[in-house]
Amino acid sequence: MRFSIVGAGAIGCLFGARLKLAGHDVTLIHQDSFIVQAIRKNGVRLQEVNGRLSRVRVPARRGPTELLGTEVLIVAVKAYDTREVAASYVGMVEPKTTVLSLQNGIGNVETLQSSFKNEILAGSTTEGALSLGPGSVLHTGKGLTVIGDPRRINEGTCLRIKIAFDSAGLKTRTSSNIRGVLWTKAIVNAAINPISSLTRLPNGALAKNAAIREIARKVMAEGISVSRVSGIRLVGDPRKLWQRTLSMTGANKSSMLQDIERGKMTEIRQLNGVILSQGKKTRVKTPVNEILTGLVLGLEKSYEPSTLKS
Protein backbone atom coordinates (compact mmCIF):
# COMPACT_ATOMS: atom_id res chain seq x y z
CA MET A 1 0.00 0.00 0.00
CA ARG A 2 1.01 3.63 -0.42
CA PHE A 3 1.20 5.48 2.89
CA SER A 4 1.95 9.09 3.79
CA ILE A 5 2.53 9.79 7.48
CA VAL A 6 2.11 13.31 8.80
CA GLY A 7 4.17 13.60 11.96
CA ALA A 8 7.67 12.11 12.02
CA GLY A 9 7.84 11.71 15.79
CA ALA A 10 8.28 8.44 17.66
CA ILE A 11 5.10 6.70 16.45
CA GLY A 12 5.35 8.13 12.93
CA CYS A 13 8.94 6.93 12.55
CA LEU A 14 8.19 3.51 14.08
CA PHE A 15 5.26 2.83 11.77
CA GLY A 16 6.98 4.42 8.78
CA ALA A 17 10.15 2.37 9.15
CA ARG A 18 8.31 -0.90 9.80
CA LEU A 19 5.97 -0.42 6.83
CA LYS A 20 8.89 0.48 4.57
CA LEU A 21 10.81 -2.62 5.66
CA ALA A 22 7.72 -4.69 4.79
CA GLY A 23 7.82 -3.38 1.22
CA HIS A 24 5.17 -0.69 1.36
CA ASP A 25 5.53 2.75 -0.25
CA VAL A 26 5.96 5.22 2.63
CA THR A 27 6.62 8.94 2.87
CA LEU A 28 7.22 10.73 6.17
CA ILE A 29 6.08 14.34 6.39
CA HIS A 30 7.02 16.87 9.05
CA GLN A 31 6.82 20.64 9.36
CA ASP A 32 10.30 20.96 10.90
CA SER A 33 12.88 21.17 8.11
CA PHE A 34 15.66 20.08 10.51
CA ILE A 35 13.88 16.77 11.18
CA VAL A 36 13.15 16.29 7.48
CA GLN A 37 16.79 16.88 6.54
CA ALA A 38 17.99 14.47 9.24
CA ILE A 39 15.75 11.69 7.88
CA ARG A 40 16.79 12.41 4.31
CA LYS A 41 20.46 12.24 5.28
CA ASN A 42 20.47 9.36 7.75
CA GLY A 43 17.20 7.50 7.20
CA VAL A 44 15.13 6.39 10.19
CA ARG A 45 17.28 4.87 12.92
CA LEU A 46 15.10 2.11 14.41
CA GLN A 47 16.21 0.22 17.50
CA GLU A 48 13.96 -2.76 18.19
CA VAL A 49 12.91 -4.27 21.51
CA ASN A 50 15.47 -7.06 21.05
CA GLY A 51 18.26 -4.52 20.49
CA ARG A 52 18.48 -4.96 16.72
CA LEU A 53 19.38 -1.69 15.00
CA SER A 54 18.25 -0.75 11.50
CA ARG A 55 18.66 2.30 9.34
CA VAL A 56 15.67 2.51 7.06
CA ARG A 57 15.66 4.79 4.06
CA VAL A 58 12.25 6.45 4.12
CA PRO A 59 11.50 9.42 1.85
CA ALA A 60 10.79 12.57 3.86
CA ARG A 61 9.13 15.82 2.86
CA ARG A 62 8.42 19.07 4.61
CA GLY A 63 4.73 19.72 5.12
CA PRO A 64 2.22 20.80 4.29
CA THR A 65 2.69 19.24 0.87
CA GLU A 66 0.67 17.68 -1.93
CA LEU A 67 -0.19 14.03 -1.29
CA LEU A 68 -0.80 12.76 -4.81
CA GLY A 69 -1.24 9.01 -5.06
CA THR A 70 -1.51 8.44 -1.31
CA GLU A 71 -3.85 5.57 -0.47
CA VAL A 72 -3.72 6.03 3.30
CA LEU A 73 -2.76 9.23 5.09
CA ILE A 74 -1.78 8.47 8.68
CA VAL A 75 -2.09 11.46 11.00
CA ALA A 76 0.40 10.94 13.82
CA VAL A 77 0.77 14.47 15.19
CA LYS A 78 0.04 15.55 18.75
CA ALA A 79 -3.68 15.92 19.47
CA TYR A 80 -3.36 19.66 20.08
CA ASP A 81 -1.95 20.07 16.54
CA THR A 82 -4.74 18.20 14.75
CA ARG A 83 -6.87 21.25 13.94
CA GLU A 84 -3.95 23.23 12.53
CA VAL A 85 -2.65 20.29 10.50
CA ALA A 86 -6.11 19.52 9.11
CA ALA A 87 -6.60 23.13 8.04
CA SER A 88 -3.20 23.21 6.33
CA TYR A 89 -4.03 20.12 4.23
CA VAL A 90 -7.45 21.20 2.97
CA GLY A 91 -7.34 20.87 -0.81
CA MET A 92 -4.15 18.78 -0.74
CA VAL A 93 -5.69 15.39 0.02
CA GLU A 94 -7.21 13.54 -2.93
CA PRO A 95 -10.85 12.40 -2.46
CA LYS A 96 -9.86 8.72 -2.79
CA THR A 97 -7.32 8.94 0.05
CA THR A 98 -8.31 7.38 3.37
CA VAL A 99 -7.30 9.39 6.45
CA LEU A 100 -6.36 7.41 9.55
CA SER A 101 -5.93 9.15 12.90
CA LEU A 102 -3.32 7.26 14.93
CA GLN A 103 -3.23 9.62 17.89
CA ASN A 104 -3.81 9.91 21.61
CA GLY A 105 -6.85 11.58 23.11
CA ILE A 106 -10.45 12.23 22.20
CA GLY A 107 -11.71 14.59 19.51
CA ASN A 108 -9.17 14.04 16.71
CA VAL A 109 -11.57 12.15 14.44
CA GLU A 110 -14.25 14.83 14.79
CA THR A 111 -11.70 17.53 13.92
CA LEU A 112 -10.60 15.66 10.80
CA GLN A 113 -14.20 15.00 9.78
CA SER A 114 -14.92 18.72 9.96
CA SER A 115 -12.08 19.46 7.51
CA PHE A 116 -12.21 16.57 5.03
CA LYS A 117 -14.91 14.76 3.09
CA ASN A 118 -12.63 11.73 2.84
CA GLU A 119 -13.13 8.41 4.52
CA ILE A 120 -11.88 9.03 8.09
CA LEU A 121 -10.76 6.07 10.19
CA ALA A 122 -9.67 6.03 13.82
CA GLY A 123 -6.84 4.09 15.35
CA SER A 124 -5.32 3.40 18.72
CA THR A 125 -1.97 1.76 19.47
CA THR A 126 -0.15 0.55 22.54
CA GLU A 127 3.15 0.12 20.68
CA GLY A 128 5.83 1.69 22.87
CA ALA A 129 8.04 4.22 21.11
CA LEU A 130 10.64 6.63 22.47
CA SER A 131 12.13 9.38 20.35
CA LEU A 132 15.93 9.49 20.64
CA GLY A 133 16.30 12.49 18.35
CA PRO A 134 15.31 13.53 14.82
CA GLY A 135 14.52 10.39 12.86
CA SER A 136 15.68 8.10 15.68
CA VAL A 137 13.25 5.89 17.58
CA LEU A 138 13.52 3.19 20.22
CA HIS A 139 10.78 0.56 20.07
CA THR A 140 10.34 0.08 23.82
CA GLY A 141 7.53 -2.45 23.83
CA LYS A 142 5.32 -4.46 21.51
CA GLY A 143 1.64 -3.65 21.70
CA LEU A 144 -1.64 -3.86 19.81
CA THR A 145 -3.04 -1.47 17.22
CA VAL A 146 -6.81 -1.26 16.73
CA ILE A 147 -8.47 0.52 13.80
CA GLY A 148 -12.08 1.10 12.86
CA ASP A 149 -14.57 3.23 10.98
CA PRO A 150 -16.46 5.48 13.42
CA ARG A 151 -19.38 5.60 11.00
CA ARG A 152 -19.30 1.83 10.39
CA ILE A 153 -19.64 2.38 6.65
CA ASN A 154 -16.56 0.82 5.06
CA GLU A 155 -14.88 -1.99 6.97
CA GLY A 156 -13.02 -3.15 3.84
CA THR A 157 -10.40 -0.40 4.05
CA CYS A 158 -9.82 -1.21 7.72
CA LEU A 159 -9.09 -4.81 6.78
CA ARG A 160 -6.61 -3.79 4.07
CA ILE A 161 -4.73 -1.54 6.51
CA LYS A 162 -4.77 -4.28 9.14
CA ILE A 163 -3.15 -6.68 6.67
CA ALA A 164 -0.50 -4.08 5.83
CA PHE A 165 0.26 -3.37 9.49
CA ASP A 166 0.40 -7.08 10.30
CA SER A 167 2.85 -7.59 7.44
CA ALA A 168 5.07 -4.98 9.10
CA GLY A 169 5.05 -6.82 12.42
CA LEU A 170 2.61 -4.36 13.95
CA LYS A 171 -0.08 -6.58 15.44
CA THR A 172 -3.45 -5.10 14.48
CA ARG A 173 -7.14 -5.89 14.73
CA THR A 174 -10.25 -4.08 13.56
CA SER A 175 -13.17 -3.00 15.71
CA SER A 176 -16.78 -2.09 14.97
CA ASN A 177 -16.80 -0.02 18.18
CA ILE A 178 -13.77 2.20 17.66
CA ARG A 179 -15.30 4.96 19.78
CA GLY A 180 -15.28 2.60 22.73
CA VAL A 181 -11.67 1.64 21.90
CA LEU A 182 -10.60 5.30 21.87
CA TRP A 183 -12.31 6.03 25.18
CA THR A 184 -10.81 2.95 26.81
CA LYS A 185 -7.33 3.97 25.62
CA ALA A 186 -7.90 7.58 26.75
CA ILE A 187 -8.91 6.42 30.24
CA VAL A 188 -5.78 4.26 30.44
CA ASN A 189 -3.56 7.08 29.20
CA ALA A 190 -5.20 9.45 31.67
CA ALA A 191 -4.02 7.11 34.44
CA ILE A 192 -0.47 6.83 33.07
CA ASN A 193 0.67 9.98 31.28
CA PRO A 194 0.04 12.75 33.82
CA ILE A 195 1.21 10.60 36.73
CA SER A 196 4.43 9.72 34.94
CA SER A 197 4.99 13.33 33.93
CA LEU A 198 4.54 14.54 37.51
CA THR A 199 6.67 11.79 39.09
CA ARG A 200 9.17 11.55 36.18
CA LEU A 201 8.91 7.75 36.41
CA PRO A 202 8.99 5.33 33.47
CA ASN A 203 5.92 3.20 32.88
CA GLY A 204 7.13 0.08 34.67
CA ALA A 205 7.80 1.94 37.93
CA LEU A 206 4.22 3.23 38.17
CA ALA A 207 2.69 -0.19 38.79
CA LYS A 208 5.18 -0.96 41.58
CA ASN A 209 4.09 1.93 43.80
CA ALA A 210 0.95 1.35 45.93
CA ALA A 211 0.09 5.06 46.24
CA ILE A 212 0.38 5.56 42.48
CA ARG A 213 -1.77 2.49 41.82
CA GLU A 214 -4.50 3.97 44.03
CA ILE A 215 -4.39 7.32 42.25
CA ALA A 216 -4.57 5.54 38.89
CA ARG A 217 -7.50 3.45 40.09
CA LYS A 218 -9.45 6.60 41.00
CA VAL A 219 -8.63 8.26 37.67
CA MET A 220 -9.94 5.24 35.79
CA ALA A 221 -13.02 4.87 38.01
CA GLU A 222 -13.99 8.46 37.18
CA GLY A 223 -13.42 7.88 33.47
CA ILE A 224 -15.46 4.68 33.51
CA SER A 225 -18.33 6.47 35.27
CA VAL A 226 -18.29 9.32 32.75
CA SER A 227 -18.26 6.95 29.78
CA ARG A 228 -21.10 4.88 31.23
CA VAL A 229 -23.34 7.90 31.79
CA SER A 230 -22.43 9.20 28.31
CA GLY A 231 -23.59 5.97 26.68
CA ILE A 232 -20.12 4.94 25.57
CA ARG A 233 -19.54 1.18 25.55
CA LEU A 234 -15.93 0.64 26.50
CA VAL A 235 -13.93 -2.11 24.84
CA GLY A 236 -12.25 -4.13 27.57
CA ASP A 237 -11.57 -3.19 31.17
CA PRO A 238 -9.29 -0.11 31.41
CA ARG A 239 -7.92 -1.35 34.73
CA LYS A 240 -6.68 -4.59 33.18
CA LEU A 241 -5.35 -2.75 30.12
CA TRP A 242 -3.50 -0.34 32.45
CA GLN A 243 -1.65 -3.23 34.06
CA ARG A 244 -0.96 -4.91 30.74
CA THR A 245 0.27 -1.71 29.10
CA LEU A 246 2.69 -0.94 31.93
CA SER A 247 4.08 -4.49 31.91
CA MET A 248 4.57 -4.46 28.13
CA THR A 249 6.17 -0.99 28.00
CA GLY A 250 8.00 -0.99 31.32
CA ALA A 251 11.08 0.85 30.05
CA ASN A 252 9.07 3.42 28.14
CA LYS A 253 8.62 7.03 29.15
CA SER A 254 5.06 8.15 28.46
CA SER A 255 4.63 10.63 25.62
CA MET A 256 3.54 13.26 28.14
CA LEU A 257 6.69 12.80 30.20
CA GLN A 258 8.75 13.13 27.02
CA ASP A 259 6.91 16.38 26.25
CA ILE A 260 7.50 17.75 29.75
CA GLU A 261 11.20 16.94 29.56
CA ARG A 262 11.44 18.80 26.24
CA GLY A 263 9.48 21.83 27.44
CA LYS A 264 6.62 21.19 25.02
CA MET A 265 2.85 21.31 25.25
CA THR A 266 1.14 18.14 26.46
CA GLU A 267 -2.03 16.29 25.53
CA ILE A 268 -3.55 16.73 29.00
CA ARG A 269 -6.51 18.62 27.54
CA GLN A 270 -7.39 15.73 25.22
CA LEU A 271 -7.05 13.10 27.98
CA ASN A 272 -7.92 14.02 31.57
CA GLY A 273 -9.33 17.33 30.32
CA VAL A 274 -11.91 15.51 28.20
CA ILE A 275 -12.94 13.31 31.14
CA LEU A 276 -13.27 16.47 33.23
CA SER A 277 -15.33 18.40 30.66
CA GLN A 278 -17.54 15.42 29.82
CA GLY A 279 -18.02 14.85 33.54
CA LYS A 280 -19.31 18.38 33.93
CA LYS A 281 -21.73 17.88 31.03
CA THR A 282 -23.07 14.66 32.52
CA ARG A 283 -22.87 15.83 36.16
CA VAL A 284 -20.35 13.16 37.11
CA LYS A 285 -17.75 14.32 39.60
CA THR A 286 -14.14 13.84 38.49
CA PRO A 287 -11.97 15.39 41.24
CA VAL A 288 -8.81 13.36 40.63
CA ASN A 289 -8.82 14.08 36.90
CA GLU A 290 -9.39 17.74 37.71
CA ILE A 291 -6.38 17.82 40.04
CA LEU A 292 -4.10 16.06 37.55
CA THR A 293 -5.24 18.36 34.74
CA GLY A 294 -4.51 21.42 36.86
CA LEU A 295 -1.09 20.16 37.93
CA VAL A 296 0.09 19.34 34.40
CA LEU A 297 -1.23 22.65 33.09
CA GLY A 298 0.75 24.23 35.90
CA LEU A 299 3.88 22.46 34.67
CA GLU A 300 3.26 23.89 31.22
CA LYS A 301 2.91 27.37 32.74
CA SER A 302 6.29 26.96 34.41
CA TYR A 303 8.02 27.07 31.02
CA GLU A 304 9.26 30.38 29.76
CA PRO A 305 6.72 31.58 27.15
CA SER A 306 9.48 31.98 24.59
CA THR A 307 10.52 28.33 24.93
CA LEU A 308 7.10 26.65 24.93
CA LYS A 309 6.98 24.66 21.71
CA SER A 310 4.12 22.73 20.16
Question: How would you explain this protein's 3D organization?
Answer:
There is one protein chain. By secondary structure, the chain is α/β, with parallel strands linked by helices. The protein has two domains: 2-176, 3-Layer(aba) Sandwich (Rossmann fold); 181-307, Orthogonal Bundle (N-(1-d-carboxylethyl)-l-norvaline Dehydrogenase, domain 2), CATH 1.10.1040.10. Helix content is 45%, strand content 18%. It contains 13 helices and twelve strands. An eight-stranded mixed β-sheet has the order 5-2-1-6-7-8-11-12, sandwiched between helices. The two termini are 31 Å apart.
In brief, what are we looking at here?
The chain has about 300 residues and is α/β, with parallel strands linked by helices.
Task: Note the topology.
Layout: E1 2-6, H1 10-21, E2 25-30, H2 33-42, E3 44-47, E4 53-56, E5 60-62, E6 72-75, H3 82-88, E7 98-102, H4 108-115, E8 120-125, E9 128-133, E10 136-141, E11 145-148, H5 155-167, E12 172-174, H6 178-190, H7 193-199, H8 203-206, H9 210-229, H10 238-248, H11 255-261, H12 272-282, H13 287-301
Parallel strand pairs: 1-2, 1-6, 2-5, 3-10, 6-7, 7-8, 11-12
Antiparallel strand pairs: 3-4, 8-11, 9-10
